[in-house]
Design a protein that fits this description.
Largest sheet: 6 strands, mixed
Family: Belongs to the peptidase C1 family.
Protein name: Dipeptidyl peptidase 1
Order of helices and strands: HEEHEHHHEHEEEEEE
Keywords: Disulfide bond, Hydrolase, Protease, Thiol protease
GO biological process, one term: proteolysis
GO molecular function: cysteine-type peptidase activity
Radius of gyration: 23 Å
Number of helices: 6
Length: about 280
């Protein structure tokens, strides 16, 4: 390395003098404390209760469906998020219902009726191959060879874990993404007592598993909003299931919010569809 190069490197490491106005400004990053303050300010301005089924009297959530005996919850919950977000983005002018069967039968990123990951379907599959309307591949509820009709597909522009990475999620980040962008897809752990749910705010009452850094989950669902119980003051998520309208609260359930109940706040997925 020659002396001239060393001199230039040393000079570039310091502010340069502008002959007209004095020292030039250096772009600076805000401090972590400032970023935290801004985030807390945004969160404090969020509504205390919110539900995309009723925003000033308008419903932006697609109907509850029934996955049947096929383990396709990941497909139903992922596609339900895209359906709702398209409604929101287009002021309900695009009310397409997507095909879980296309995912079950055609996706190489999942295991059909044996399960899959919402992040991969709502994100990578929808971005690479697109979501197919239901009428182009009606739901069969079982594994089958891939045989969809040739129809227009809807794609995803970008997708992410809420919080930026697996496990980086929390209640406030989820609330912010829900209000700003629409319902989010989540996964949580279903215990036997959940199967008996018929109404109210659910929390697991049995003996769960021990600590697991990978967040034990086995069911994908869609969070459409959040609320607070007027009597108990308990906070809850409003969740759309895929077990039909005869189950729970007309196909929905409420679950404790702010405590990562059954790991439901561990891996929310957010995706932005292209209308």
């Amino acid at each position: 390395m020659d002396r001239h190069h060393v001199s230039r490197t040393t000079e570039d490491a310091h502010p340069r003098l502008d002959q007209k106005s004095g020292w030039s400004e250096i772009p600076c990053q805000s401090s972590p404390a400032s970023s935290k303050h801004n985030f807390e300010k945004v969160v404090s301005q969020l509504p205390s209760e919110f539900d995309w089924r009723n925003v000033n009297g308008v419903n932006y959530v697609s109907p509850v469906r029934n996955q049947g005996a096929c383990g396709s919850c990941y497909a139903f919950s992922s596609l339900a998020m895209l359906e709702s977000r398209l409604r929101i983005m287009t002021n309900n002018t695009v009310q397409v219902q997507f095909s879980p069967q296309d995912v079950v039968s055609c996706s190489k990123y999942s295991q059909g009726c044996e399960g899959g990951f919402p992040y991969v379907i709502a994100g990578k599959y929808a971005q690479d191959f697109g979501a197919l309307p239901e009428e182009c591949y009606p739901y069969e509820g079982h594994d089958s060879s891939c045989n969809p009709k040739d129809c227009k597909r809807f794609y995803v522009a970008k997708y992410k874990y809420v919080g930026g990475f697996f496990g980086g999620c929390n209640e406030d980040l989820m609330k912010m993404d829900i209000v700003q962008n629409g319902p989010v897809t989540v996964a949580f752990q279903v215990y036997p007592d959940f199967m008996l749910y018929s109404g109210g705010i659910y929390h697991h009452t049995g003996i769960g598993s021990g600590f697991n850094p990978f967040h034990l989950v086995n069911h994908g669902v869609l969070i459409t909003g959040y609320g607070i119980d007027n009597k108990s003051g308990d906070k809850y998520w409003i969740v759309k299931n895929s077990w039909g309208t005869d189950w729970g609260e007309s196909g929905y359930f409420r679950i404790r919010r702010g405590t990562n109940e059954c790991n439901i706040e561990s891996m929310a997925v957010s995706a932005i569809p292209i209308p």
